[in-house]
Amino acid sequence: MIKKxxxxxxxxxxxxxxxxxxxxANVISSNYPGxxxxxxxxxxxxxxxxxEIIDAxxxxxxxxxxxxxxxxxxxxxxxxxxxxxxDATNLERNLYLTLELLExxxxxxxxxxxxxxxxHIGINIDEKKLRKIxxxxxxxxxxxxxxxxxxxxxKIKKAKSPGKIKTTSEEKKWIKIGKIIKQVEKLEHRHxxxxxxxxxxxxxxxxxxxxxxxxxFFSFWIVRLIxxxxxxxxxxxxxxxYRPLIQEFGELLGDGFLYxxxxxxxxxxxxxxxxxxxxxxxxxxxxGMVLPYIIAFxxxxxxxxxxxxxxxxxxxxxxxxxxxxMHGYGIIPVFLGLGCNVPGMLATRTLETRKQRLIAxxxxxxxxxxxxQTSLIFAMFSDEKIRNSLEFSPIIYIFMVFxxxxxxxxxxxxxxxxxxxxxxxxxxxxxxxxRIPHLKxxxxxxxxxxxxxxKDAIPWMFFGVxxxxxxxxxxxxxxxxxxxxPIMSGLFGLPGxxxxxxxxxxxxxxxxxGTLLSFPEGTFSAMQLVxxxxxxxxxxxxxxxxxxxxxxxxxxxxxKSALIMISAAIIVGIIxxxxxxxx
Amino acid sequence: MTKKIISLANLPxxxxxxxxxxxxxxxxxxHRGKHFGGCNLGHRMGVMGVRKGQxxxxxxxxxxxxxxxxxxxxxxxxxxxxxxxxILVEEL
Lengths: 583, 92
Prior knowledge:
The structure holds two protein chains of two kinds.
Chain A: E1 4-9, H1 15-23, E2 40-46, E3 49-55, H2 67-75, E4 81-87, H3 91-103, E5 108-113, H4 115-120, E6 123-125, H5 127-134, E7 138-140, H6 149-155, H7 170-184, E8 185-187, H8 194-203, H9 205-253, H10 257-262, H11 281-307, H12 310-323, H13 331-339, H14 341-347, H15 354-367, H16 371-382, H17 384-387, H18 394-419, E9 428-431, H19 439-473, H20 476-492, H21 498-507, H22 511-518, H23 526-539, H24 543-553, H25 555-581
Parallel strand pairs in A: 1-3, 1-4, 4-5, 5-7
Antiparallel strand pairs in A: 2-3, 6-8
Helix pairs in contact in A: 3-7, 8-9, 9-11, 11-13, 11-16, 11-19, 13-14, 14-24, 15-18, 15-25, 16-18, 16-22, 16-23, 18-23, 21-22, 21-23, 23-25, 24-25
Chain B: E1 5-7, E2 16-22, E3 30-31, E4 34-35, H1 41-47, E5 55-61, E6 68-72, E7 75-79, H2 81-85, E8 87-91
Antiparallel strand pairs in B: 1-8, 2-5, 2-8, 3-4, 5-6, 6-7
């Protein structure tokens, strides 16, 4: 009886797309190796029965070389059937894992994915012959369009483990593969296509680096453009409609305890950013302020991911990342982390050694602001109350914060590379062919990520606002501000209230802006705000990221990482104080 | 005609060559602080398609001893310069 089906295959062959097709569930897929670092479970109907189906991380071999590959080879143990997803444009290399899987004696069928692509690039595969040689069902499919999926499902029952498979050495497997390829594959010669030319241009240093800089700047410009327009034309009008409703509701409630918690600290005054009520700030910050940038960011990220550009960027940046104790793939956690640090942390799994992972995770939590934090920084300097005290345009201060963070990323990385023991192996990364992203896939992926954000952000915001309200009511806030005053002003030249901003940042980074703006005008000077924004990013990750870090790094390394974070934040705070404020 | 065997790192961009052997080095020699290879490097290269007898072409080399991007068959991949030094090829 089939209970558990596992999808196995090399990285970036489209397992996650097949998984989505089979289960109807949505999982993130992209065009670079290592998108799936953990397995996802789903269910599908097979002959009227429900079976479990598992999407394993990609692996080149059952002998794992990193943590995500380890996950894959362990999943094989409980599989009743394996669907071996193969990139048909890369048959030879993919067959190695196929032969290894055969030796494990688990019943198997083969899905020859990207079948349409083989025709375009001049590869002819005789799938009937392949079926005969391997003595297994092998079905050509195009997972992106769904072609062949029906047949694949019908053939699952026919999965088998051909008898008389002997375990052989690596070398003998390659000899066998060579023979198979000779019989089933014919190549036509094709000239360099436009895609190849673009590929070359984006990976050669002379042309690649300027293109990379242009792409990154353009991406951020687009994110800001989309984000701002969503706020001005959609979300602000929506909240303008919401305002009278909440006002009326407030009048119904009357002044008191409930009003404070739900609507505003001071009766009659409603300011969505700083009122610190669950129904005002608790809803406005995640939805009205952060969400638009989340939408914009993930839309742009989807396109970057699906074209296959990121591995090329990793190649170009490899040298720099080596100096920081990682290799070029270290850029992937940074990119994902700019959206939310949690998936960024998970992506560190594809780095091979403990040293690389520790450095990548620590730098991520210190110097990579998530979108919530970034929109907080944007909002902070554009707020009317703050704007009055600014000498220059807000963008200058925003730039100062980001420049500080970039410098911190490199300096802390250089230092960690010197002191963290362990190896930093060289990069070894497959460069996928460029693909034109599907708009529908990109939109779907963005939508999934937005749902995760809302599911995570709104409860935490509510909880955060609730806690802050309690702390205010019982006077803890006052107390903390007093206690930390000597430290804050002595070390960083900041008012004692900063401690509250930093504490609320632990619950959720975007909550901190509400706390920050709720202080009376003039509490912070412009330069102090730059310091607060930078330290808020560095000091400590939010609870969600913190939990993932413990899981990924283990308690011991997490403590090390936390100590590095705190000391780095303190040192940077002091340095910035002297640079920006003077004494 | 004499066969000229060089390391992949020295193969000029755009030239094709055949892989003659891959030096399996377990002892990490240091080169600008980078480790050369790892214990299962040969295996890992093998499963990714970098093997004896394959035809290889260099697409690009990043400056300052940065990584090399190669193509083998329809695959492209980026490998560290240290690894490239361990792959001996014969220019075609």
